[in-house]
């Protein structure tokens, strides 16, 4: 009986990705790990979805400022920075997750490019009514709105107000990306 010859792609060893770790899929940081806590409140965006989003955004990412409204793992921010975004503001309510975002930025060597705001995204946006939301005005924004899907039901009005407020404030050529499940009727 002849021995089976290894298939060049199917039998290639794959790098181990421990539980609680994602990988950046494109740009200069491609393949670098992103740690996350695995908390059920943090739903990592699927790799296929991230890839599709960044294929659609294409070169618009270069030079932009990222606003990651419900940052969670920060995966979309790290992807954007990896692909040429110059800075990012990540908002995350869960304090341990916010600390992990800063740790990931440090390990990726991009800490100086990000600001993590620990707190409620809706509160942050309301604060902007009296103290203008502090985001760069000299370049386009790419705003990612990927909240827990349940918020599209329980906080629909607040979410719509938040997206509208950022759309009104955003510099020319900005883009707002909203991820939702079927309960959100565009």
What does this structure look like?
This protein is α/β, with parallel strands linked by helices and 186 residues long. Helices cover 31% and strands 16% of the residues. The protein contains six helices and seven strands; from the N terminus they run E-E-H-E-H-E-H-E-H-E-H-H-E. The protein has a five-stranded parallel sheet with strand order 5-4-3-6-7, sandwiched between helices. Strand 4, helix 3 (95-108) and strand 5 (114-118) form a beta-alpha-beta unit. The longest helix has 14 residues, at 95-108. The chain is globular and about 40 Å long. It starts with 20 loop residues before the first strand and ends in an 8-residue tail after the last strand. Mean pLDDT is 85; it is low at 7-19.
Low-confidence stretches are 7-19
How many strands? 7
In terms of DSSP E residues, the strand content is 15-25%
Count helical runs: 6
Shape: globular
Q: Portion of residues in helices? A: 25-40%
Structural class by helix and strand composition: alpha/beta
Mean pLDDT, to the nearest integer, reads: 85
State the major sheet.
Answer: 5 strands, parallel
Helix-strand blueprint:
Blueprint: E1 21-23, E2 33-35, H1 47-57, E3 65-68, H2 75-82, E4 87-92, H3 95-108, E5 114-118, H4 121-127, E6 141-145, H5 151-154, H6 156-169, E7 175-178
Parallel strand pairs: 3-4, 3-6, 4-5, 6-7
Antiparallel strand pairs: 1-2
């Amino acid at each position: 009986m002849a021995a089976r010859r290894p298939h060049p792609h199917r039998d290639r060893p794959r790098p181990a990705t421990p539980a609680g770790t994602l990988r950046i899929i494109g740009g200069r940081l491609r393949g670098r790990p992103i740690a996350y806590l695995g908390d059920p409140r943090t739903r990592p965006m699927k790799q296929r979805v991230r890839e599709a989003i960044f294929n659609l955004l294409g070169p618009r990412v270069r030079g932009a400022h990222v606003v990651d409204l419900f940052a969670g793992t920060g995966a979309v921010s790290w992807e954007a920075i990896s692909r040429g975004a110059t800075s990012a503001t990540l908002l995350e309510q869960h304090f341990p997750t916010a600390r992990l975002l800063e740790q990931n930025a440090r390990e990726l060597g991009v800490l100086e490019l990000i600001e993590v705001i620990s707190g409620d995204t809706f509160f942050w946006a309301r604060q902007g009514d009296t103290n203008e939301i502090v985001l760069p005005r000299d370049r386009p924004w790419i705003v990612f709105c990927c909240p827990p899907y349940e918020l599209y039901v329980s906080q629909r009005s607040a979410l719509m107000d938040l997206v509208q407020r950022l759309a009104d404030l955003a510099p020319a050529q900005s883009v707002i990306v909203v991820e939702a499940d079927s309960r959100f009727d565009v």
